[in-house]
Structures
1.
Amino acid sequence: MKIAIASDHAGFPLKEVVSEHLQAAGHEIIDFGTNSTASVDYPDYARPAAQAVANSQADRGIVICGTGLGVCMTANKVSGIRGARCTDEYSARMSRRHNDANVLCLGQRVTGVGLALSIVDAWLAEPFEGGRHARRVAKIEASL
Ligand code: RB5
């Protein structure tokens, strides 16, 4: 898969770990920064990554900040994006099965590295169920 990834300073170390993990698994990464722990504003990084998913430059997106909240709020402002902030594997799987989430939002200050990687793997592998869930997801877009 082609995966757009971005973080602010608070998510930068986890972004690097997730990027390496995904590349080792054969995924292609499009890195929208940031590239250090110097303080930046998360919308400046999360938005371009979400836009890359919305315009099909990437198949999925992963955005990371301290809590996962700011990047998720930003991603969900982009039309066509269904960003899910996940702190457990069950939610990650369900965000795919029922909500067809196309951006995963993680918080480095909330979720440890081991769990974060398990969440990422579960989220990437889980299919969308379609059916009645497709109708509901279409209604999300219709309400824009
Ligand atoms: C940065 O201090 C922090 O506010 C940011 O990473 C994020 O948690 C915001 O939602």
Note: The mean pLDDT is 97.
2.
Amino acid sequence: MKLLADAQRHVLSTVRLLETIRVPIAEANGLVLADDVPAPHDVPPFANSAMDGYAVLAEETEQAPVTLNVIEDVAAGHVAQRTVVPGTAIKIMTGAPMPLGADAVVRVEDTHQDGAAVHINHGVGQSENVRVAGGDLLAGSIVFEAGTRLTPHHLGVLTSIGVGNPLVRRRPLVGVLSTGDEVLSPEATLEPGKIHDSNRPQLLALLDELGVDSVDLGIVGDDAAVLRSALQRGAAGADVLFTSGGVSMGEYDVVKAVLSETGDVALWRVAIQPAKPFAFGHVAGTPLFGLPGNPVSVVVGFEQFARPALLKMMGARKLFRPRIPATLAVDVDTDPAKTVFLRMVAELEGDTWMARPAGGQSSNQLTALARANAFGVVPVGTAGLTAGSRVVLEMFRWPESRTEQEVLNGG
Ligand code: AMP
Ligand code: MG
């Protein structure tokens, strides 16, 4: 058996970076920056007011209450024409540039205006309620480094520095194929001996979540000739191929035979549970992930091999899901020969993350995975863990966890 890390090293070492492209900011969410991004100007670009109020000379308000003469009004988006000199103030709105002369803003709540006179009730110190130029970003500084995966907030920042078409790497296109004479499409009526295809919908949705494009290559029965041509067609039209099924020890696994003769694909037994049987290689130069058939194994194989590889192709520096420490609520038995991925529900109880198995842990029992938000990762060499012991969780989902009632009641 191959250790998980060795299998991951092999897969990741073969990955090639996709080409760089410029995309409009509206299409960049989830993509990865291909270059460091410097700030071409300060953010904010000019000193401006943090409050609605009056731009003043701070020194003059030391003796508050004082009365000043309002010489102009300036709203956000406009520039004051006059200079604040002793005895004067300029009425200013949040976000408007600081007028020349002024060095602080008195909040409107601390004033009372009467015609052209404003009574200042509370004094301000220098720079009070002023947002300085460059207070968020300085011109020339590196805002984000190459390898950063863009979130909506990154898009906001890029826009603030005028980067409307960031340089990223393009989305990979993944072809997804299910195999097996027993596998029926979701809309087909079940017949004796047949099951519905759980793997394709999961994989297509996981890819969608990752911001990766996909082509649905359908279901191919256990027929070598049909599979061979489906793989060749798939390889020609995609950057990566996923198959599921047909890589275990069964006698009728034509997939194994076709994969090894059609491409340069190796069949592995990886020391993990689930997802031990796994094939990886290339068909006509296209990387192929031969995922196992069982639906939970498919997801574990996707998470541990395919997802990090796709992120690497996209240029990301960080490839793996976040891990947190948690406390086991119950005893669990695991195979010491393998890294075991338990499907768990992790919940914060007080200050502690508590982890409980989400249901049946067989690789065909998909409902537990749907209920779970984390994999409990039990390393090789551990035969089980007792309640109260520490377990490492790999968070594959951070779902909403508080109801309307809980929050409105102060939760
Ligand atoms: P295999 O390695 O092809 O023998 O598949 C292992 C197990 O996974 C068998 O019980 C298959 O019926 C099941 N399986 C294979 N493909 C799928 C699929 N697309 N959806 C649900 N179960 C599947
Ligand atoms: Mg099969």
Note: The longest strand covers residues 339-349.
3.
Amino acid sequence: MYSEKVMDHFQNPRNVGELENPSGVGTVGNAKCGDIMRIYLDVDENQIIQDVKFKTFGCGAAVATSSMATELVKGKTIFEALQVTNKAVMEALDGLPPVKVHCSLLAEEAIHAALWDYAEKHQIEIPGLEKPVNDISEHEEEEEY
Ligand code: FES
């Protein structure tokens, strides 16, 4: 049911933990399943993500997608990180079962929330970044899978 990559990132998640004095932090949840994800970013003066950590209180797919999402944004600029969509994360994991697609949205939204926090603290604008929501299930009906 799960790809080998999903199982690998679930069993050996990369970048688990938190950062002291992060440049940006984002937390999002999905009230329908009760899962919560938090992402910490360390962004340098060139707006490159030097480090990223996550904590996920959630299902296996949520852990695997957070792990892969952190791998994909590390070393990228804050603008490039915005292009890391849930589809990109799923592709990098060789897919997810349809009922687990919503879990990958949690990873995308948590990164957006952390980028938003960074942008607010540094009074910059990241074009295309929308204000994050705390509960992504409110917007689920509008999402295209
Ligand atoms: Fe909610 Fe996976 S079941 S994030």
Note: Residues 30, 33, 35, 58-59, 61-62, 103, 106 surround FE2/S2 (inorganic) cluster (CB under 6 Å).
4.
Amino acid sequence: MTISGKELADSIIGRIASEVEDYHVRFGRVPALAVILVGEDPASKVYVRNKTRACERAGIRHIEITLPEDTSELEILENIEALNADPSVDGILVQLPLPAHLSESHITGAIAREKDVDGFHPLNVAALWLGRDNAKIEEHYPVACTPRGIMRILEAAGVDPAGKRAVVIGRSNIVGLPIAKLLLNANATVTICHSRTKDIAEITRQADILVAAIGKPKFVGAEMVRDSAVVVDVGINRLPDGKLCGDVDFEAVAPRASVITPVPGGVGPMTVCSLMENTIDCYLRHTAKRKKRKI
Ligand code: GUN
């Protein structure tokens, strides 16, 4: 079964759009997301455009701040401070990667925790690693978008990770580590593989659920996958002919897998969809707090 992340994301964004209309009537304003893009990275420009288009479909107001490649850290921090202090802004995102002279940890750590729609703030990361119940974590704190989207895909495919052997290839802060923790919270037995793992195929062949987030085109071949495995492909790589491909060799692996996500149209749209959900969650927490304070 090939899971269309695009169809799933479209249906969730459609539901969000009707909820937003209702929130607008009830609370007098729509949710707002600020997106900061620094520099000219072509892939980042595409991702930001996808995010702002999704905001338009969801009825979420979006504020785009585009800054030149040589912007100083101080200037970015000043922009973030202004957005942190603006009560009409619910979510703030700085598109990564940043130009080399900028510190990703300084910048993502400067976003107010309660507006951190990416779930990158150290306290939100800590909440994920200290919590054990994914539903409760999502209710109180934002969780990184791609991992949240992957859990949605598994749910939609009827895959319960409990008791299953999950193998994650990749240990990034954005995907590998948080998806490993969400799968662990969902009671899977989790192994994280990475570029220094020896005999990686021997480990991946044991996976009931295999998440490939290593950033190498078609890295996962049929010989690395057991029969009937659930295969989630996080990679977005551009081949020399300009076509996109994932970290999984889809044609080779699909006949073996019980569930597989395609690239494009799999995890990517679900990442954007989770961003919309995180923005709504931040808006609702924000609105509830303001109501409590009678502002
Ligand atoms: N770059 C690649 N993935 C992401 C993401 O999920 N959020 C941000 N801010 N930048 C990214």
Note: The mean pLDDT is 96.
